[in-house]
Structure to design on (246 residues):
């Protein structure tokens, strides 16, 4: 796949190499008080419900078939329910993904389509079930630090724009991207060659306009910080890669 590349804070780019990869397992997830696994299903249909108990809440995960992804739910610790119940009114559905673990009051899940990059990850508030961050990353976190009321994550972020970075509209599009990504001081990557290359593969003239309106995926080093109920992004030193979104 064709890629266009620019650099953010290139004089400081060496700082990025100082980060060591921090896979999810190294976050140091909390050990549950206990866990249960209830097998069920009829006519060869494998089904399993996992219930993972923590001091302030319970995470239930329903698996349908042989997969590592399931329906992840939140249950108040004070609720009365039986693990494996077909319907539990006290459950709040969070997402359908791979359950990763719990850190403090934060519930982490992730998902990658057929095991391919990028990885979609989400962090939920274990007290309310609210989604605090939903983002995509290439590779692993280079830093994952959690506190009582927030977290700081560093990773190679994959951001999909809602506009094309092509010629006449590129400047306006980049202005919106800068606000959404924290790339406030970065130059817009030159993605024109990607559009030109895609246009050459088009057989019918009436499809060329759709190419010119194609959004982009930007991959860059980012820090996501959640504190005081607010999520913000800061760009870190490194390259900014540009790909057409589809």
């Amino acid at each position: 796949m064709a890629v266009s590349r620019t650099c953010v804070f290139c004089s400081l780019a060496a700082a990025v190499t100082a980060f060591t990869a921090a896979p999810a397992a190294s976050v140091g997830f909390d050990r549950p008080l206990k866990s249960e696994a209830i097998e069920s299903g009829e006519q060869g249909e494998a089904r399993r419900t996992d219930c993972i108990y923590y001091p302030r809440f319970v995470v239930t995960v329903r698996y349908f078939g042989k997969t590592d992804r399931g329906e992840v739910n939140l249950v108040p610790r004070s609720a009365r329910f039986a693990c494996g119940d077909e319907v539990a009114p006290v459950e709040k559905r969070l997402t359908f993904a791979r359950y990763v673990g719990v850190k403090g009051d934060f519930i982490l899940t992730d998902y990658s389509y057929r095991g391919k990059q990028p990885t979609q990850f989400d962090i939920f508030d274990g007290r309310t079930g609210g989604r605090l961050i939903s983002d995509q990353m290439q590779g692993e976190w280079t830093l994952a630090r959690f506190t009582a009321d927030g977290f700081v994550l560093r990773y190679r972020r994959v951001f999909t724009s809602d506009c094309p970075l092509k010629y006449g509209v590129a400047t306006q599009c980049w202005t919106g991207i800068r606000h959404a990504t924290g790339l406030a001081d970065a130059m817009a990557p030159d993605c024109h060659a990607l559009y030109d290359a895609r246009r050459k593969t088009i057989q019918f003239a009436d499809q060329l306009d759709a190419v010119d309106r194609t959004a982009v995926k930007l991959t860059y080093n980012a820090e996501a910080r959640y504190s005081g109920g607010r999520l913000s992004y800061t760009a870190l030193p490194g390259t900014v890669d540009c790909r057409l979104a589809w």
User: Anything to note?
Assistant: Helices lie at 170-181, 192-199, 208-212. Residues 1-27+137-246 form one domain. Residues 170-181 form the longest helix (12 residues).
